[in-house]
Design goal:
The chain has a single domain, classed as Ubiquitin-like (UB roll) (Roll). It is built from two helices and five strands, in the order βαβαβββ. It is globular, with a radius of gyration of 12 Å. 16% of the residues are buried.
Length: 81
Amino acid sequence: MTVRVLAFARIRELLGAPESTITLPDGARVCDAWSALTGRAPALEELSSSTRVARNGLLVPRDERLQDGGEIALLPPSGGG
């Protein structure tokens, strides 16, 4: 299956693009997508615990299944004042 990945802030910098696609086996979960991405950019691993993932616009846990043609957005923590 192919999944579109949207990356923001530091994650975008580490992946080198605001958007990319990854190919995963059928039945893959969000955690499998994260593993594939850390294979491309190992420094992502340090952001694992603080990054939230939205699948098709909704925040989901890492064990959420993905669908072919779906989209995930990688959302790093944000600060403000």
